[in-house]
Write a sequence for this structure.
């Protein structure tokens, strides 16, 4: 049995693998990759032994900053991030959930000032077991990640 690649290899850059299905496009918008003109390869709904289905992002000639890598964990906590050099994995990026995030989510509280004033949203982030809790800085209401809309 021969093994084939669904997505071609990159010479140098970053590979974000094991992204939960349906999250790759959010990560691309989060990282503003379309604005930066990098060559980006995206695999959607690829087979995965660990996840069943997964997404994948390859960014040529760009290494993610620690901040960018940590922000990815909000959308893909099980993602692996590899730095590629000369077609080989040079290093793996260890991520941790950031303590806060700005202008990525919309507060679901209809009384929150961020919905009526031109203020960037700001959420404090906390991990609670397998769930992520986001607390709005302005109205101080906590929400689970799946309750908060994405503003990307």
């Amino acid at each position: 049995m021969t093994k084939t690649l669904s997505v071609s290899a990159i010479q140098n850059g970053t590979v974000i693998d094991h992204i939960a299905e349906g999250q790759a496009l959010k990560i691309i918008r989060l990282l503003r990759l379309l604005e930066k003109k990098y060559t980006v390869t995206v695999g959607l709904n690829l087979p995965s032994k660990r996840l069943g289905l997964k997404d994948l992002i390859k960014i040529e000639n760009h290494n993610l900053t620690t901040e960018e890598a940590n922000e990815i964990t909000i959308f893909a906590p099980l993602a692996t991030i590899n730095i590629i050099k000369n077609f080989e994995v040079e290093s793996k990026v260890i991520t941790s959930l950031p303590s806060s995030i700005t202008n990525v989510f919309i507060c679901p509280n209809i009384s929150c000032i961020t919905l009526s004033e031109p203020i960037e949203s700001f959420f404090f982030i906390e991990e609670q077991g397998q769930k992520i809790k986001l607390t709005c800085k302005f109205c101080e209401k906590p929400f689970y990640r799946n309750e908060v809309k994405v503003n990307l």
Summary: The chain has a mean pLDDT of 91. Residues 12 and 85 are 5 Å apart (CA to CA).
